[in-house]
Amino acid sequence: MIDLQEFATITEQAVTNHLPVSYPVVSLTGAWVDEKCEPFQKNESDQWMAGCWVGYLSLGDCRVSIQPRVGWERFEMLVAGSMEITYVGRNANGTDGSEHGITRNILALLWCLALKQGRRVHHGPVKAYVQRYEPELPSLRGQLDLRRQLTVNQRYGKAHRFACRFDELSHDIPINRGILAVIERLRREKLYPFQSGRHFLTATHRENLIGWQQRLQELGVSMPNGFPTESVHWSRTNGGYRKAHHLGGRRVHSRSASVHAAVKGDSLLFDSAEIWELFLYHRLQMALEKLNPAYEIHSPRFAGEKDYLFEYQSTRRRGLVPDFILREKSDPKNALAILDAKYRYFQGLPKDDEIQQMALYACRYGKEQPLPCVLIYPTCPNFNEEKDSGHGHLLIHRNGSQLHWWLIDLGSEKNDPETRLQALDDQMRKALGKLIQQMEKKESAGKAVGLRRKESEPLSAEIPRE
Question: Cα(280)–Cα(342) distance, rounded to whole angstroms?
Fold first, then answer.
């Protein structure tokens, strides 16, 4: 978290005068977008508070770093664990422990998102006028090279050929050659997304980059020897690729990569709640594959479904979509439980709005009776660490449906990241196993009650009429 007192005293004027209307927000499931967000808000005591946005802000001459509640080291672990990025952590001097570590992979991920945003703006590869020189054209084009025409061409019997300089509209420009150079480097060094793994976002980005490479080669873009160093004149016709070109040349393609240096002079914000949600989605899927492959975790938002429970007609906003649905692979239309990721403080019991939200999910997705629901919170030093129990539950319906909460321990920074991820996955498997066991036990008890009711019903027979 940011030092709020220092922030309030030093940057009060900077916040008032320099904060732009929109910020470049990094969405791991979307792209670089100019989204209106408010990273700082004043509470009832008129104190500045930081929300779910973490990263860096340039406020005039002042540069503010908004640190995650879980700390940067654990935050990078969450990003790595949610995207199947190879994570090796940091060594004793605080630098990246390996060339294929988290830093370069996060930069590669950011470059993929920036490239996707550029394509969204310009609808594909851009082209520009490039100066060409041809010593023997059959017709005059552009500017005539009079010296060569009167010497070489005239002397060797080629007076009917023209030496010309001209501008030609071409895709073989530094922007596109830089894209090819970065894609080839990511592929050669097996950085994101050209690494092993079946994550749906990794596969999508990999297919996009392969399509980019094939398309640019079809358009005649030459493969450079290294990242192109030519200067680029940025305008509205190519400005959408400026962020991708900057990240690709100075950070992704460079061996001295640094996330902090990559955003120097810029504002870069992550939605920590989204990263926690994506992290849980991937780790829950992995836990279920080892625990019971008959079940799966489904995310309506990540799957692109738009089955919202309600809409705000005035503001066109939509709301209330569960983060995860536990279901059987053989019966995907039948939800068994609802799980929701909560990147917020836990005060011993879920808040009233969280209980009401989960109760609505339970009734909405339960066909015959409300479903069991789970809230999942992170815990680590300085964040939900004072809680004695990592699990709990309360009744949300008179039929016995329960609201559970899990506090997932992110571990101590003293342990290596691989050990922490393994311990975290063990927590996931135990909690899911207990939830599935309770559901199966309740289902079998319900079937037994139904059978007893059916056996206790009086037999009736139709009396034949005379």
Answer: 10
- Please give the span between the terminal C-alpha atoms of the chain, in angstroms, as a whole number: 88
Task: Provide the 10 A C-beta neighbour count for residue 115.
Answer: 26
Q: Is 319 left (phi over 0), alpha (psi -120 to 50) or beta?
A: beta
Q: What is the DSSP letter of 169?
A: E
Burial of 317 (0-12, 13-18, 19+ CB in 10 A): exposed
Residue 395 forms beta bridges with which residues? 402
The answer on pLDDT for 348 being more than 90 is no
Residue 260 — very low, low, confident or very high, per pLDDT cuts 50/70/90? Answer: very low
Domain ranges of the chain: 4-77+88-95, 104-268, 292-449
d(CA 212, CA 281): 28
Which phi-psi region, left, alpha or beta, contains residue 84 (left: φ > 0; alpha: ψ -120 to 50)? Answer: left
**Beta strand pairing call for 373-379 and 402-409:** parallel
Cα gap 1→178, rounded to integer Å? 37
Q: Which of 87-96, 127-136, 179-188, 222-231 has the lowest mean pLDDT?
A: 87-96
Q: Give residue 393's region: left, alpha or beta (phi > 0; psi -120 to 50).
A: beta
Map 42-69 to HEC letters.
ECCCCCEEECCEEEEEEECCEEEEECCC
Q: How many CA atoms lie within 13 A of 272 on its CB side?
A: 24
* Angle between helix 102-122 and 200-218 (nearest 10): 60
On whether the pTM is more than 0.85, the answer is: no
Q: Kindly list the distances between the CA atom of residue 235 and the CA atoms of 122, 226, 353, in Å, as whole numbers in the listed order.
A: 12, 24, 47
Burial (CB count within 10 angstroms: exposed 0-12, middle 13-18, buried 19+), residue 130: middle
Full strand arrangement of the beta sheet holding 32-35: 32-35, 23-26, 268-271, 53-59, 62-66
DSSP-derived 3-state class of residue 386: coil
State the average pLDDT over residues 268-293. 86
